[in-house]
Amino acid sequence: MSENLATAERLNAEAETEHQAAADKEMSINARLKDTADRMASISQRRINGESNDQEASEFAALKGDADLLQKMLAEAKQITIDAFGKLRLSVMNFNDLGAEHKREQNAIEYQVLLCKAKEIEDVFVRAIGETGRAGKKIGHFTLGQSFRVGDALDRALRLNVIPPIKN
């Protein structure tokens, strides 16, 4: 189980890295697109003001081509980011499921250990009750109930299925 959990943890880290790289690329393309749009707006404003020259007209045409290409790249990057996020989400869910399964297994082991301990204590307890009953007969008790009475906490636990609180 811990090997599966370690594998899931590694796959989760890989999916996180992949998603972060895709998101970073998307942000980078977005920044380049904004810079291109800002420069195009600047050139347009200069043209409107009559301050433009032929070199800026050529630059504007090249920037328009760049902007179109960057738009396509951005759409692809967004899809890659979405896909990576889906993969990351599945990886996290798998990791959480394995973690919960691991926790259930640990709880089952703890239960078995405590059950064995309780059985050992029960054996000692039953022997002690038997010895108390035998000692009671020596002083005139006719029944085990005269020699030993179950305490309220144990009585409630056994008859009413009330789990006693843990006292430190």
Poorly predicted spans: none
Q: Give the CA-CA distance, first to last residue.
A: 33 Å
Overall strand count:
0
Number of helices: 4
Strand content: under 5%
Helix and strand composition category? mainly alpha
Number of domains: 1
- Nearest-angstrom radius of gyration? 38 Å
Please tell me what the overall shape is: rod-shaped
Level of helix content?
over 70%
What about the largest sheet? Answer: none
Q: Encode the helix/strand succession as letters.
A: HHHH
Mean pLDDT value: 90
Could you walk me through the main structural features you see in this protein, from its secondary elements to its overall organization?
The protein is mostly helical and 168 residues long. The chain has one domain. It has 4 helices and no strands. The chain has helices spanning 2-48, 54-138, 144-147, 152-160. Helix 1 (2-48) runs antiparallel to helix 2. The two termini are 33 Å apart.
